[in-house]
Amino acid sequence: MGEHGNGDPKSGAVITAGEGESGKYAIDNPGLPPHRPRLADVDEKAAKRAERQVSVLFILSIIGTVVTFVGYFAIGQTDGDLHLLRLQNTLLGVGTALAMLGIGLGIVHWAKTLMPDHEIVEDRKPLRQEVHREEAQKIVTEVLDESQIARRPLLRNTLIGAALLAPLPAVAFFRDLDRSEDFGVERMRHTLWAPGVRLVRDPTGTPIRAADLTIGSAMHVIPENLREITYHGERLAEKAKSVVLLMRMNPNEFRNTIPGREDWTVDGIIACSKVCTHVGCPVALYERHTHHLLCPCHQSTFDAAENFKVVFGPAGRPLPQLPISVDEEGFLIATSDFTEPVGPTYWERGHTDPEGDYPA
């Protein structure tokens, strides 16, 4: 180590804090900086003014929620009118922004102007096994006193009103995603596919012959009767449920594992729902060599060669398979609807279908 003892802390080579001549190397605790009171701390008029400003922000939040409801319910369905659609979108955007920003800015302004801003140091208390009710109650009381909720009813009432109204548009939006009168779980059980409905290309509507598909190819198809729906919103909803992925593989590579589906394919041509059974994302990536279908959202992987069973990922059940055949003109047709509900699993799908089409 050498004669100077560089490795010995007592050798004098290293001077620690608090040691040396007159302790000049020690660093004293500087403590907390002096507190500078705000204007609202010493002037009640300024505090009242800050209270009114916060309340105005909360009231703006309430107004924003009302504007959102007006845009959503008063205007209603726009039926393709671009002027109404722009007005509705503007009201929804402005209303939602006011509702959220009003509460956020109000709480921030409240904390900066009225709540105590003293810096304190609180010693860590020893861990105890029993909860001290009186101490917890004291802490809650101190929080209420510091927030000044009890002293300032205008703040309390406007905050309660804004907080109660702000979530309502989201509740209405999610509940009212489908405005049709027959909304219900039964709409999820059935699609436009039916015996004799042709498979057509999207968006041209061209029927598909078996000879149009080569081994390894895949295409996005829809039911021909989708074109009969004139209302745009209903057409989109039905298309979302009925969209199908059609592919062709070597018939020798297909291994049917479900009894009763022996005649659901045509010379290696097989069809399935594109709606992932996890959360409903569109399954569109087909790997021709492994016959795997990949959902890009959460990487659920399905094996088309074995009735679209799940081979990887969070999906809990196979993709529904569409039974297909060929009509007299050589075009591909469906022989029935899907024999199980498409899309993500939901609670009601386990119940017995009233028409007896689906197993319980």
UniProtKB/TrEMBL annotation:
Membrane topology summary: Multi-pass membrane protein
Pfam families named among the record's database cross-references: QcrA_N, Rieske
Ranges that cross the membrane: 54-75, 87-108
Subcellular location: Cell membrane
Domain Rieske: 241-333
InterPro entries the UniProt entry points to: QcrA_N, Rieske_2Fe-2S, Rieske_2Fe-2S_sf, Rieske_Fe-S_prot
Predominant place of localization: membrane
Keywords assigned: 2Fe-2S, Cell membrane, Disulfide bond, Electron transport, Iron, Iron-sulfur, Membrane, Metal-binding, Oxidoreductase, Respiratory chain, Transmembrane, Transmembrane helix, Transport
Keyword check for Amino-acid biosynthesis: no
SUPFAM superfamilies found in the cross-reference section: ISP domain
Family as reported in the entry's similarity comment: Belongs to the Rieske iron-sulfur protein family.
Role of this protein: Iron-sulfur subunit of the cytochrome bc1 complex, an essential component of the respiratory electron transport chain required for ATP synthesis. The bc1 complex catalyzes the oxidation of menaquinol and the reduction of cytochrome c in the respiratory chain. The bc1 complex operates through a Q-cycle mechanism that couples electron transfer to generation of the proton gradient that drives ATP synthesis.
Protein's name in the database: Cytochrome bc1 complex Rieske iron-sulfur subunit
